[in-house]
């Protein structure tokens, strides 16, 4: 990462999140950890539909699901359907239809079916739909002109003392894409305050583990420390002679705070004794890079460097990724051509399967470290149920969390559809995560008035 990008990253780390409605968190409670994995081309509900859930939907619909890929206008249940799904990794229909493995099949291979829950029916129309939801999926607000409308749930949770604890970083955010080294279109500290996602694997690795490395990587870490010290002295001098208006003074003070926070994080790192994971190989791209990014994010959680991590895959508007091991057609073009070309629809399913394989492998790794019961993994699309989405449904896969208040997995929960007064929204899932962190997060998001169906957690997901 060059000096300019590093200082941009540093400047973006200042955040003040309101803690209204905080509940007491028991001193002996286990602090939850969170891993958000966001796909930039939407996730179709058909990719998460196992045999038992398909049978339940067929029984409640006026006509079977059949070959439909999404069906947000067809839900007829007035109350949540809780479907026991020990077959969560099995979809005979999709495997027969397309001749490839069901996207959720890796959950069985990695032994995490019993830790996994599929959620169908949640809407989030405030996001706006279309090609991309930007910060909207994780914030339940709308990003206007690329400007976030509120904090994303990762930033809110990471700022809670009950979650942050003594971790060196509040959150670790990494992504893959074709664009800039730093993505400011996926996460946000607050309204108008985007949070950076590092898209360079080497830079992200050195940022997290540079204090524990040797050779050139340690030299880079020390160079960053000197840059921060230089910037801090420069800002301090500017503050002492500043004669501008209050708004500009606030910006200057925020910059000084950001520098101080990152430097303090570095100093906390240097006080630890830690064996770093292997560095990701240079030049990775596509699904191999996604797998490496997930591994790195999981390492920061397992090692206690950060309590919250985000992995973006083609998010922030950079959704036209290439996956040469799957198809010569770019991901965006797969979606556009899939209605007329079944081979492209099959390619979409195989991309999803590869992503779930990486997520399931990381879940098993966290489980083997004895931490999956306190870690909540969430996989969702950034714009809803399809590529040109209406945001009428956000299918979600949740893994883990049984030790911090989530109900056990091996099931599918189907909420009433978007046209129902009993519909629940993506913000209710974020409310749920807030509750298990000791926070009454019931008003999170921008849905107010008629847009907010019913605030509060999803009781069906809580133990």
Write structural notes for this entry.
The protein has 463 residues and is an alpha/beta fold. The protein has a single domain, classed as Alkaline Phosphatase, subunit A. It is built from 14 helices and 10 strands. The strands form 2 sheets. An 8-stranded mixed beta sheet has the order 2-10-3-9-8-1-7-4. Helix 11 runs parallel beside helix 13 and helix 12 crosses helix 13. The longest helix has 27 residues.
Topology:
Blueprint: H1 3-11, E1 33-39, H2 51-60, E2 81-84, H3 92-98, H4 106-109, E3 116-120, H5 136-139, H6 153-158, H7 161-164, E4 172-176, E5 182-190, E6 193-198, H8 201-209, H9 215-241, H10 246-270, H11 286-302, E7 308-313, H12 331-337, H13 342-368, E8 375-381, E9 396-400, E10 411-414, H14 426-436
Parallel strand pairs: 1-7, 1-8, 3-10, 4-7
Antiparallel strand pairs: 2-10, 3-9, 5-6, 8-9
Helix pairs in contact: 8-11, 9-10, 11-13, 12-13
Q: What is the level 1 CATH name?
A: Alpha Beta
How many strand segments? 10
Q: What is the name of the CATH superfamily?
A: Alkaline Phosphatase, subunit A
Q: Average pLDDT value? A: 86
Percent strand: 5-15%
Task: Work out the helicity level.
Answer: 25-40%
Oligomer: single chain
Q: What is the number of independent domains? A: 1
Structural class: alpha/beta
- The second-level CATH architecture is 3-Layer(aba) Sandwich
In short:
The protein is of the alpha/beta class and 463 residues long. The chain has 14 helices and 10 strands.
């Amino acid at each position: 990462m060059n000096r300019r990008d590093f200082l941009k990253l540093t400047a973006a780390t200042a955040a003040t999140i309101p803690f209204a409605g905080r509940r007491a968190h028991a001193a002996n409670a286990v602090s939850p950890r969170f891993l958000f994995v966001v796909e930039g081309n939407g996730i179709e509900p058909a990719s998460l539909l196992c045999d038992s859930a398909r049978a339940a939907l067929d029984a409640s619909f006026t006509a079977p699901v059949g070959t439909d890929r999404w069906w947000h206008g067809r839900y007829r249940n007035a109350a949540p359907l809780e479907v026991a799904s020990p077959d969560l990794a099995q979809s005979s229909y999709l495997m027969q239809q397309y001749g490839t493995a069901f996207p959720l099949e890796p959950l069985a291979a990695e032994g995490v079916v019993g830790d996994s829950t599929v959620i169908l029916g949640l809407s989030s129309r405030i996001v706006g739909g279309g090609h991309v939801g930007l910060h909207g999926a994780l914030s339940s607000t709308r990003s206007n002109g690329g400007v976030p409308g509120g904090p994303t749930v990762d930033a809110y949770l990471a700022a809670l003392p009950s979650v942050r604890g003594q971790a060196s970083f509040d959150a670790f955010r990494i992504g893959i894409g074709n664009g800039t080294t730093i993505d400011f279109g996926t996460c946000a500290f607050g309204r108008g305050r985007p949070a950076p996602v590092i898209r360079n694997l080497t830079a992200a690795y050195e940022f997290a583990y540079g204090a524990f490395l040797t050779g050139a990587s340690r030299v880079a870490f020390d160079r960053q420390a000197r840059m921060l010290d230089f910037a801090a002295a420069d800002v301090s001098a500017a503050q002492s002679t500043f004669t501008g208006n209050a708004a500009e003074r606030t910006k200057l003070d925020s910059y000084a705070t950001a520098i101080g926070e990152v430097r303090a994080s570095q100093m906390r790192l240097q006080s630890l004794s830690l064996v770093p994971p292997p560095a990701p190989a240079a030049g990775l791209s596509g699904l191999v890079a996604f797998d490496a990014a997930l591994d790195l994010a999981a390492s920061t959680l397992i090692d206690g460097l950060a309590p919250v991590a985000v992995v973006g895959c083609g998010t922030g508007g950079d959704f036209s990724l290439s996956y040469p091991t799957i198809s010569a057609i770019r991901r965006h073009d797969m979606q556009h051509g899939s209605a007329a070309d079944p081979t492209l629809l099959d390619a979409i399913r195989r991309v999803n399967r590869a992503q779930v394989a990486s997520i399931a492998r990381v879940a098993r790794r966290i489980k083997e470290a004895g931490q999956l019961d306190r870690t909540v993994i969430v996989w969702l699309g950034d714009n809803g149920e399809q590529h040109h989405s209406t945001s009428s449904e956000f299918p979600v896969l949740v893994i883990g969390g049984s030790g911090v208040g989530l109900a056990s997995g091996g099931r599918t929960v189907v909420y009433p559809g978007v046209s129902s007064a009993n519909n629940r929204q993506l913000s209710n899932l974020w409310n749920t995560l807030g509750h298990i962190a000791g926070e009454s997060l019931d008003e999170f998001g921008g849905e107010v008035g008629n847009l907010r169906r019913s605030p509060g957690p999803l009781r069906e997901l809580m133990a």
